[in-house]
Amino acid sequence: MKKVLLTGAAGLIGAKTAEKLLAQGIEVVGIDNLNDYYDVNLKHYRLSQIKDPKFHFHQIDIEDKSKLRELFKANRFDVVFNLAARAGVRYSMENPDIYMTTNAMGTLNLLECMREFKVSKFVLASTSSLYAGQAMPFKEDLAVNTPISPYAASKKAAEVMAYTYHYLYGIDVSIVRYFTVYGPAGRPDMSPFIFADKILKGEELPVFGDGTQSRDFTFVDDIAEGTILAGKKLGFEIINLGGGNNPYTLLQMIELMEKFSGKKAKLKLGDRIKADMDVTWADISKAKRLLGWEPKISFEEGIARLVKWHQTTSL
């Protein structure tokens, strides 16, 4: 890899992936539409932390095929990392249309540009949400034909289209399915950010359900490293990137946040969201075998870093 296209560069995972690619001396063209799904200041903050002359940012939406074509025409990319997406299970129930236009059609636009300009490697960020109702720990060869949210359905569409372009045009595809990614400057619609913020402010924590829901939390640095490793030639592969250990409950996460902040949480329990999964748990044996990857940051260390960021950073 000498030069890559990285979509979703202002996102939590995108910005960290850019940072680690640049550290390897790889030139990164980053794009993001900087939409207002959550506070745009947070996206600008992440971009401001990337200080490298080999990083070139453009405010472009992957739904805009003509702008993408201009970018592909002006650059010779070795790999396309598609981390741009409309994320969030609950919001997808309210605005399903935009999830299909971004996650599915946006992916198609990138694949079409890759076909036209002969870019041979595609890395697609996908989601553990596809595994709803399957036996755990989740393995990549499970049938994922019963998505329970528009978000998961749109990601399934992107995966299927990527396979089609691999089959028809020989594009080498790695699909990385992420498991509950968290870390400093994370997404403010996700529980790690919300809970840390509320605990430090002494406000009530909204918990949907009884707090025993569990997730295979994965620290953002580990996810970024796995994503980059997936940029090698593999043919067509779907690879889980997750914690790989027993999942942690929301209540366990809250206890760690209390420990590192020195403050007591005020829980406000509410009804469970129907589209939410009760448990996620990744089998990461394939990532170990194909990529030589496994997470390095423990959940306790990751939560400590997250809480410290909330304590020391103001946007």
From TrEMBL:
Record domain NAD(P)-binding: where: 5-305
Residue ranges of coiled coil: none
Listed Pfam families: GDP_Man_Dehyd
UniProtKB keywords: NAD
Domain of life from the UniProt record: Bacteria
Classification via SUPFAM superfamilies: NAD(P)-binding Rossmann-fold domains
UniProt-recorded name of the protein: SDR family NAD(P)-dependent oxidoreductase
